[in-house]
Amino acid sequence: MQLTQYTDYSLRTLIYLAINEDGATIATIADYYGISKNHLVKVANHLARLGYLSTNRGRSGGLKLQGDPDDINIGKVVSQVEPNFYLVECFNIEKNTCPITPVCKLSGVLGKAHKEFMNVLNEYTLTDLIRNKEEILAIPGVNSLN
């Protein structure tokens, strides 16, 4: 299973904001992770539309986690931000050209693997991902308040 960069950035943003409870700017998060500010703007806007973040513009603006990290299910986030789970061509009915699809067992095996993957993600919340908050905060630059 491979998640898109977009999903990776979404999860990293949520982790950062769960640790920095007072919030942070897009620029701060982008600089910390070494990722594109423009790309992170799209991610943040999407997460805000989904209700995970609140956004404020202006001089004292920025991003804040909306709600309790214990209520943010990782599997749900991934399923909402990951555009598709086309592990192989035959998962995309519109673009499938594989001639053995009608008799192939691969899609069933991969479908089962995907289901198990999502079941594992559904067992975790954002709180689980920041249980080692002290270790994360010990990494230079993580706490935007320093």
Write a brief caption for the model.
This protein has 146 residues and is mainly alpha-helical.
Structure, described:
- This protein has 146 residues and is mainly α.
- The protein has a domain at 5-83 and 125-137: Orthogonal Bundle (Arc Repressor Mutant, subunit A), CATH 1.10.10.10.
- Helix content is 47%, strand content 5%.
- It has 7 helices and 2 strands, in the order αααββαααα.
- The protein has helices at residues 5-19, 26-33, 37-49, 74-81, 106-121, 126-129, 133-137; strands at 53-56, 62-65.
- It has a two-stranded antiparallel sheet with strand order 1-2.
- α4 (74-81) crosses α5.
- It is elongated.
Distance between the termini: 37 Å
What's the architecture of the domain at 5-83 and 125-137 in CATH terms? Answer: Orthogonal Bundle
| E-strand count | 2
Question: Class by helix and strand content?
Answer: mainly alpha
Radius of gyration: 18 Å
Write the H/E string, N to C. HHHEEHHHH
Low confidence ranges:
none
Question: Which of globular, elongated, flat, extended, rod-shaped describes the shape?
Answer: elongated
Our count of helices gives 7
The amount of beta strand, in percent, is: 5-15%
Question: Largest sheet, order of strands side by side?
Answer: 1-2
The major sheet is characterized as: 2 strands, antiparallel
Instruction: Work out the helicity level.
Output: 40-55%
Name the CATH superfamily classification of the domain at 5-83 and 125-137.
Winged helix-like DNA-binding domain superfamily/Winged helix DNA-binding domain
Mean pLDDT: 91
